[in-house]
Amino acid sequence: KAGVTQTPRYLIKTRGQQVTLSCSPISGHRSVSWYQQTPGQGLQFLFEYFSETQRNKGNFPGRFSGRQFSNSRSEMNVSTLELGDSALYLCASSSGLVADTQYFGPGTRLTVL
Amino acid sequence: GESVGLHLPTLSVQEGDNSIINCAYSNSASDYFIWYKQESGKGPQFIIDIRSNMDKRQGQRVTVLLNKTVKHLSLQIAATQPGDSAVYFCAERVYTGNQFYFGTGTSLTVIP
Fold first, then answer.
1. Start-end of H helices in chain B
2. Contact check, Cβ <8 Å, B102/A42
3. Which of A2, A51, A85, B109 has the maximal Cβ count within 10 Å?
4. What pLDDT, in 10s, does the model give residues A71-98?
């Protein structure tokens, strides 16, 4: 089975711009979770989508949004980028069943200048 | 928010020795725990998991121990190899939601 894929792998943007990141989960998985990882902060949960619906949400401002398509692929959007948004954005897929294992993709490295 | 903490931010071990990485969690409602390994430039890789109705689980060269009394989780790696050098994260899931909380990570360095 192919693993979780994320595109693009690297991205450079300037303050004020917006960005869209994409995640394709493992085949058959219906849940996609997004995390932000910054040095020293560990992984911080952004949100989870299951069957095209946002099921859980972390404590991030409304500039961070996402969606999921009928094929379970998910996109994450960040509007009005700030320097502090520079991070590794990871998505994780799972079956969506309660307490099922999450498998991570390689991440998208976003740099905001 | 939830607090998942790691006792040591860095750990150095000799090749061939056993490694123990510790993790404290704060929510007694957490019912599922996962250990991940993250190598430089890669996403976290699943190592082993354990549910709250268990105290111990073994995998290939790895063992996870769960002490619910003191809310402590540990990862033991037997015969540590250079390829084990990475950052290790513990993650907990709180039963009230299907959301995982991660610790800040422990950096393991294996000395040849």
1. none
2. yes
3. A85
4. 999 999 999 999 999 999 999 999 877 6
